[in-house]
Amino acid sequence: MGFVYLFVGFVMIQRVIEVIIANQNARWIKKQGGYEAGGEHYKYIVALHAFFFVALLIEISFFGPEVLRWSLIPLIVFLIAQVGRVWALSSLGRFWNTRIMILPGAKVVAKGPYRFMRHPNYVIVAMEILALPFIFQAYWTAFIFSILNVIVLRVRIREEESALKEATNYEEVFKDRGRFVPSYDE
């Protein structure tokens, strides 16, 4: 049981570090003349992710984690998502953020996984929200928070794409790329 809490705690620490990096990046973008768009929904994203970990820990504690042989499958999916997360975040560099930060006139990043789709980081987050609870048979957490994530992302992506289209070359760069499914330039 201690390993389970260590594993989940490690993921939570990762997220806190990411928020720190995001805040540093936001300050940098603002110093360059950028601004935040769609901030009204950000509190719901924060709440979703915070309550995800609370629900996960409660469900694990209440039902007791049972790491089964097939738990290796969601663990592998989760670990692949972690590699994808690092790839996506490092590809965006200072432009990566948990908020929608816009730098007018900037050229959107179209390298790394962004060469293939518009929103690889959201695909990765969806994989994590589904896979992490499945590792420990926390099915309710996986189900409920996957649905809530889709609802929040519908608002988030609409706001993000609108702001990027207005202030950057987003539409030109990503017009032929799928949102969540890879597509390749010929």
TrEMBL record:
This is Isoprenylcysteine carboxyl methyltransferase family protein. One of its GO terms (molecular function) is methyltransferase activity. Keywords: Membrane, Methyltransferase, Transferase, Transmembrane, Transmembrane helix. It comes from the Bacteria. GO terms for biological process: methylation. It comes from Alkalihalophilus lindianensis. It is found in: Membrane. It is a multi-pass membrane protein. InterPro entries: ICMT_MeTrfase, Metal_cation-efflux_comp. It holds the Pfam family ICMT. The chain crosses the membrane at residues 6-23, 44-64, 70-88, 129-152.
